[in-house]
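go over this chain:
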Amino acid sequence: MLEQIGDAFPRFEAYEKLFRGHQNLKHALSDVYLDLLHFLTEAKRLFSRSSLRLVLRALWKSFNQTFEDDLAKLKRHSQQVEKEAKVAHMVEEAESRLRITEIKALVEARQNSIQPQQVASTAAEIAVTKRWLNVRQCDEERNSIEHL
């Protein structure tokens, strides 16, 4: 059990950094840390006693039996952290999808609002260019210049 606890804490630290704004996850993490502190305090108290008491206590109760409730609580809260991390991940995914949808809508709206203006502007420029390049008008102007 202690090895599993030690393996989980680096992951819990990563959750803490990744999901800073998720209060339920923070609460679950604080429960785990509090359980760990309580367990370590009780273990220190047990092992700080005299050797004779330790031997007698070991014969009477095993380590796991002595700390069964503490370890069960720690395990339950660790599972809660995992659940909350999954929920936090799902919430952030949903928020990201919503932001992407909003950005797409803004881009489409901008394209739709710019496109008619561009078409009208381009059509006006083409009309001016055609008038300027009007071959008939050019012929008439050339003829009037030649007669001078």
In short: Helices lie at 2-18, 23-47, 51-60, 63-66, 68-132, 135-146. The radius of gyration is 38 Å. The chain has a mean pLDDT of 79. Residues 2-114 form one domain.
